[in-house]
Specification:
It comes from Acidipila rosea. There is one protein chain. By secondary structure, this protein is an alpha/beta fold. Helices cover about 40% and strands about 15% of the residues. It has two domains: about 160 residues, 3-Layer(aba) Sandwich (Rossmann fold), CATH 3.40.50.720; about 130 residues, no CATH class. The strands form four sheets. The chain has a seven-stranded parallel β-sheet with strand order 3-2-1-4-5-6-11, with helices on both faces. A two-stranded parallel sheet has the order 7-10. The protein has a two-stranded parallel ribbon with strand order 8-13. α3 runs parallel beside α5.
């Protein structure tokens, strides 16, 4: 049976066939994961509020805030592995805890009785840095390691982990937690998408003859850091879900290289043919500078016959400002997964250039 066919009965779902439920299948993490699993022979169900058709992926429409809708979406669907790759941003961390915790409870409530072997949760480096409203105020020493103690105070990542651990205990399945840092990859309409945001920003700079000014802090410009290609995250998610030694572990995940933005920024500028500039004093974040960008982008899209004239469907100025505006070093230790056999590596410049090439191919940015 091929990955894009309908569900099999539990009696026919053999040990050699893996059926994945990817929750958040239209996002940067879930979309790349679903495509990767489908390409390697998995049966893949992609759940989202508005799932998109994709080769090898059976769409399931459900809002995780609606427990009845989640139950209806997966009724009669056999699932062996679950990958939770979505969250809903709320105005306060208290609301993040309440809303995102309830979404997870609804998911695992609907999965009760399913033959689940493994459930994976994607969180991120805010596990070490704290939530947005207290971001970077109390950080673990770098490089961040998975066994660092939790920070005091509310963090919806911690709530999600606790719900996952409890569900795994009840259901007798394995779990893994994955903590990427600044995911780079293709997705449209995603709220955490630095790669596409920088591509749009560089395009605007080129079209208007403006310099490509680094929008972050001097600390981020000069410090060592890392990022996570969505494709290497997908590979780690599959590896952890199918490797017995990885059962019941949390894993950092980055490309495997480290860099300084002062080294990478001129390379990104060179790709677009714009003049690179470091951070001014004071810094120049994108969100206040891009107040008129929507009209500019509509004109660019019209001139170049681009597929998306609405800039708000492409960029996340606020999130890129948050990542690049930090005033502390962010480096993630990868010893945990490397010591257990995960050996994938991804060049960071190639992460950006591969993404930019795809954006051109799909007429998101001008060729």
């Amino acid at each position: 049976m091929h990955a894009n066919q309908g569900p099999e009965s539990s009696t026919n779902l053999s040990e050699s066939r893996r059926a994945a439920l990817v929750v958040g299948s239209t996002g940067i993490t879930g979309g790349n994961l679903a495509a990767h699993l489908a390409s390697t022979g998995w049966i893949v169900y992609g759940m989202a509020r508005k799932p998109q058709a994709a080769p090898g992926i059976t769409p399931l429409a459900a809002d995780l805030q609606d427990s009845a809708a989640v139950r209806a979406a997966i009724a009669g669907v056999d699932i062996s592995h679950v990958f939770l790759c979505t969250w809903l941003r709320q105005p306060t961390e208290e609301e993040n805890v309440r809303v995102n915790g309830a979404m997870m409870e609804n998911l695992f409530g609907a999965l009760a009785g399913k033959p689940i072997k493994h459930a994976a949760l994607v969180t991120g480096t805010k596990h070490y840095l704290g939530p947005f409203e207290a971001y970077g105020q109390t950080a673990a020493e770098t490089p961040f390691r998975e066994d660092n103690p939790r920070l005091p105070g509310l963090n919806f990542y911690y709530t999600q982990e606790d719900i996952l651990f409890a569900a795994a205990g009840r259901g007798g399945f394995g779990w893994s937690v994955h903590r990427p840092h600044t995911v780079i990859g293709y997705a449209r309409g995603n709220a955490m998408n630095m790669g596409v945001t920088l591509a749009v920003y560089a395009t605007i700079c080129r079209e208007t003859g403006q310099p490509f000014i680094f929008p972050g802090s001097h600390e981020q410009w000069n410090a060592l850091t890392d990022v996570t290609d969505a494709r290497i995250l997908a590979r780690q998610l599959e590896w952890a879900a199918t490797t017995p030694a990885a059962r019941n572990h949390a894993f950092n995940i980055s490309n495997g290289d480290i860099f300084r933005w002062r080294w990478l920024w001129p390379q990104l500028a060179g790709y677009f043919g714009v003049e690179p500039q470091g951070p001014p004093t004071p810094p120049a974040p994108l969100e206040p500078r891009m107040t008129g960008a929507a009209a500019l982008w509509r004109g660019i899209a019209q001139r170049h016959s681009l597929a998306e004239p609405n800039i708000d469907a492409l960029v996340s100025w606020w999130h890129t400002d948050g990542d690049l505006g930090r005033k502390l070093e962010c480096v993630n230790d990868m010893t945990q997964s490397w010591s257990l056999g995960f050996s994938a590596f991804q060049s960071t410049p190639a992460s950006f250039f591969d993404l930019f090439a795809r954006l051109k191919d799909e007429r998101i940015i001008p060729a």
